[in-house]
Write a structure and sequence with these properties.
The complex is a heterodimer of chains A (281) and B (300).
Chain A lengths: L10 H4 L6 H18 L1 H21 L3 E3 L2 E2 H31 L2 H6 L5 H31 L7 H25 L8 H16 L11 H7 L3 H13 L15 H22 L9
Helix pairs in contact in A: 2-6, 3-4, 3-6, 4-6, 4-7, 4-8, 4-10, 7-10, 7-11, 10-11
Chain B lengths: L4 E12 L2 E12 L3 E5 L6 H8 L7 E6 L4 H4 L16 H10 E4 L11 H9 L8 H7 L15 H13 L5 E5 L7 H16 L3 E5 L3 H7 L2 E6 L2 E6 L12 E6 L5 E6 L2 H12 L7 E3 L3 H8 L3
Parallel strand pairs in B: 3-7, 3-8, 5-6, 6-7
Antiparallel strand pairs in B: 1-2, 1-4, 8-9, 10-11, 10-12
Helix pairs in contact in B: 4-5
The chains are: A mainly alpha (281), B alpha/beta (300).
Chain lengths: 281, 300
């Protein structure tokens, strides 16, 4: 009796190069970006939202905030922070439950793909879309509303680390909160109110110090307020720091709170992340 | 571990709270065979298969799939009898996953990606992956290669699922109700594909509600009811089907239908032929179908 074994391997495929883990992550990122860009809702609401908001805000408040500094200079910080939060926290919090519900995650789990590659793909997508969206936002604000870009390398450096820490915290929290949604549709019901409330109390739509003190204190528990504050240090003159609740831009505290949220988000991800839906076990 | 066995299961148990889904399943699947698992909804079929696929932890029992314990591949810490057992290394887990193909129940949609993009992407996960274009062609989606996956019909989505299940050229392929929603022609084509894979040596474990599917594809059939395997046999021997009384039907000269149960149908037919002096009008001789046997086994 002849034993049946694996199909005779055609030479064309035996010499196939095995894709290394780094390349796998890049492929995964490219796939996520393709998926994002092809979804019209994602592009309009995630990438377009901050730009629409700055168009509205800069048109309404076309005066100065004091000291010859334009209102745009203040509101751009909130819009950048909101944009970064939308692309990371909101985007992941809404899409991961959909993918989980559709069994996309379960299917990835059934392949030899290392688990971290899937997360890496999401992170690459968030970073690329976040950078593109922020650049677009700045370009629009410079072109239409004479926004002054940061003038020193130091300010750009601050911009960089505030954005990186903020996006990291929001990405981790977005992945974590995705596990709260039980079905595909409930993702946006869970995430949207959280983002909206944070935007209102964190000084995105209003000047933060005009808000009631208790509201400022609540906002100070969450990352968005600190992202806005860190960005104000970038886009407003040094002297404006005196008007912050803490009497300065408190960059040290900004870094500390955002880093803390990165840790909280990471811990929540590691303990609560699910590849399958609840009813699926 | 017997090398002739692709899957070996002893005393498998799994409960969700008070609900015992799998209550002591024993099962062997030989290498190279097509094994069909039948059973009513809620009998423990999917739970059993998902434990074998490395998607769920079990509560008790011994399980070996291609020589590896899928519970250790799952990654979460083993519980119950294997608490403290060494976890499979990442490399070993990935190696095992690359040898097992899975077609889950329900279709995974990839929204805005095209068929070719998804299949090509998944091919990157497997060391011995097949040519993505060939696989797309093979599952009958050649004409749809550049279509976005959300525009596919139910049957076409299922074919995409199968393409993703076989892209890694698995030694063992799980198919969970693969032809649900297919039209008859699509089912026949799908069966051909499964026969091809089986002929090439792939071990196939199939769950299905269609008994004709089990009958025409499977070398052996296992029936699960209430969390246990109640019988395993080739489809034509299940439930002592070959020994069951045959039903002989014909029409009398007056045109009234007549039916008789007989252990010796050949003799009966010969007698009828003599009585009618040649052709017996409306003659049929049947044995219980797999469906009849199956329904009586699961208590209907």
């Amino acid at each position: 009796m002849t034993t049946t074994t694996k199909p005779a391997t055609p030479p064309a495929t035996t010499g196939r190069r095995r894709v290394g883990p780094g390349a796998l992550a890049l492929r995964q990122g490219r796939l996520e970006i393709t998926q994002f860009l092809r979804s019209r809702e994602s592009v309009v609401f995630t990438m377009g939202f901050p730009i629409i908001m700055i168009l509205i805000f800069a048109s309404i408040f076309d005066g100065t905030i004091g000291g010859g500094v334009k209102f745009t200079q203040y509101f751009i910080t909130g819009m950048i922070a909101t944009g970064l939060m939308t692309v990371s926290f909101q985007n992941l919090g809404i899409w991961i439950p959909i993918e989980r519900d559709r069994g996309v995650l379960k299917r990835y789990r059934g392949t030899p793909m290392p688990k971290w590659v899937w997360f890496a793909g999401k992170v690459i997508m968030v970073v690329v879309i976040g950078v593109a969206e922020t650049a677009l936002l700045l370009a629009v604000a410079v072109a239409l509303f004479d926004l002054d870009l940061p003038a020193t390398a130091g300010k750009w450096f601050t911009f960089g680390w505030v954005a990186v820490l903020g996006v990291t915290a929001c990405t981790l929290c977005g992945i974590a909160i995705s596990s709260l949604a039980r079905t595909a549709r409930s993702g946006s019901a869970v995430v949207t109110p959280v983002s909206l409330v944070l935007q209102f109390i964190s000084g995105v739509f209003f000047v933060f110090t005009d808000l009631p003190t208790w509201m400022q204190q609540v906002a100070a528990l969450f990352p968005l307020k600190w992202m806005c504050q860190g960005l104000r240090a970038v886009f407003l003159p040094e002297s404006f720091g005196a008007q912050e609740p803490g009497g300065s831009f408190e960059l040290g505290r900004v870094a500390l709170v955002l880093a803390l949220w990165c840790l909280i988000g990471l811990a929540l991800c590691l303990t609560t992340f699910r590849w399958t839906t609840k009813r699926d076990g | 571990m017997d090398d002739e066995l692709a899957i070996s299961v002893r005393g498998l148990r799994k409960a969700y709270g008070d609900n015992v889904a799998v209550a002591g399943v024993d099962l062997d699947v030989r290498r190279g065979e097509v094994f069909a698992l039948l059973g009513p909804n809620g009998a423990g079929k999917t739970t059993t298969v998902e434990i074998l696929e490395g998607y769920r932890q079990r509560d008790a029992g011994e399980v070996s799939v291609l020589g590896t314990d899928p519970g250790l591949v799952l990654g979460s810490r083993p519980r119950g009898p294997r608490a403290g057992a060494p976890r499979t290394s990442r490399g070993q887990a990935a190696d095992w996953r690359s040898r097992v193909g899975i077609v889950l129940q329900g279709t995974g949609e990839f929204d805005e990606l095209t068929v070719a993009e998804v299949v090509r992407h998944f091919s990157g996960f497997y060391p011995e992956a097949d040519d993505p274009d060939k696989v797309v062609e093979r599952v009958g989606l050649g004409a749809k290669a550049n279509a976005r996956t959300h525009t596919l019909s139910g049957g076409q989505k299922r074919r995409l699922d199968v393409a993703l299940g076989i892209i890694g050229r698995p030694e063992l392929l799980f198919l969970d109700e693969p032809t649900t929603g297919f039209d008859p022609e699509a089912r026949r084509e799908f069966w051909e594909l499964i026969r091809d894979l089986a002929a090439a040596g792939t071990t196939i474990v199939l769950t299905t509600h269609y008994l004709d599917e089990a009958e025409s594809l499977a070398d052996r059939v296992g029936v699960i009811a209430a969390g246990r395997v109640i019988e395993v046999a080739p489809p034509d021997l299940l439930g002592n089907r070959q020994d069951a009384l045959a039903t002989v039907s014909w029409r009398t000269p007056e045109g009234t239908p007549e039916t008789a149960q007989s252990a010796t149908p050949t003799a009966l037919v010969a007698e009828l032929a003599a009585r009618f002096g040649g052709e017996v009008p409306g003659l049929t001789v049947t044995r219980p179908t797999l469906e009849d046997v199956y329904l009586s086994m699961i208590g209907h």
